[in-house]
Amino acid sequence: MNILAIDTSNYVMGVAVMKDGTVAGEYVTNIKKNHSIRLMPAIDQVMKETGMKPEDLDRIAVAHGPGSYTGVRIGLTTAKTMAWSLGIPVIGVSSLEAVARQGVFFPGFVCPFFDARRGLVYTGLYDGDMNLVKDEKNVLMGEWLEELKELNQPVLFLSQDLSVHEETIREKLGSQAVMPGEPYQFARPSIIASVAKDKEPRPVHDLVPNYLRIPEAEAKWLEQQEKK
Fold first, then answer.
1. Pseudo-torsion of CA 72, 187, 128, 113, nearest 10°?
2. CA distance linking residue 93 with residue 85, whole number of Å
3. Read out DSSP for 122-179?
4. Residue 203 pLDDT level (bands cut at 50, 70, 90)
5. Which residues contact 63 (CB under 8 A, 6 or more apart)?
6. Which of helix, strand or coil describes residue 188?
7. 2-19 pLDDT, tens per residue?
C-alpha cells in the first residue's frame, strides 16, 4: 500500500511517503515558517525523491487535530483536496495519538499534550498498547496532573511544548513523571502513515477537524449572540 502522510497540525510540519508498506521518505521541520507556503513544495519533494506519482497513491493520511486551528485546516484541506481529485480515501489520525506512538515501547502510561495557552492543554492518556484510557480533552494542566497522580504509576510525557509545563509536571508528579529526550517529543508523519494503513476509510467529506474546543473568535461571537 502506498500512502502519503501529512501533518501541519502544530508547529512541526511533516510529510512522509510509505511505499509498498515501507517508509520510503520523510521530511520534518521544526521552524517558524508558514505551513501553507511550504507544504506543497515539501510534498512535491518527497514524492519525487521516492519516485512516486500522485496516481501511485492508494490513500492519504493526515493529522486532523487537536492543535493550531490554522495548521489543522491547512493539512486537512490539502489532504481532502488531493484525495478527492485522485479518487482515493483520506484517513484522519489524531495529532495526539501520533505523538503518543513515539512512546509505544514505554512500560506504563503515555501522555501526549499540546499547550493550549492560559494554563490549558490538549491531552489524553494511552497505555503501552496505544489504547486510549483517558479521553482526549482540553483541560487545565493542573487538574490533569491531579488525575494522573491518582494513577500512582509512571507516566511518559511527550510534547513539543514540554518546556512550557515541565516545571509544573515535576512539582506535581515527581519521580512518577518520565520525560525522554527532545527527538521523541515530536510527531513523525511516517507514524501517521503506519496508523492510517490499518484504519477503515470513510467518505472524504466526513473527515472534519478535531479541535477539542471551538476557536476563540467563534466563542466570542456566540457570547455576543447570547447577550442580544
1. -60
2. 21
3. EEEEE-TT--EEEEEEEEEHHHHHHHHHTT-S-EEEE-TTHHHHHHHHHHHHGGGEE-
4. confident
5. 6, 7, 8, 9, 72, 75, 92, 93, 94, 95, 98, 187, 189, 192
6. coil
7. 999 999 999 999 999 999
Residue written as grid cell 521530511:
27
pTM metric for this prediction: 0.91
Q: Which amino acid is at 170?
A: R
H or E segment at 121?
A: strand 120-126
All domains in the chain, ordered by first residue: 3-95+187-223 (3.30.420.40), 96-184 (3.30.420.40)
Express each pLDDT in 71-107 by its tens digit.
999 999 999 999 999 999 999 999 999 999 999 999 9
- The count of residues in the chain is 228
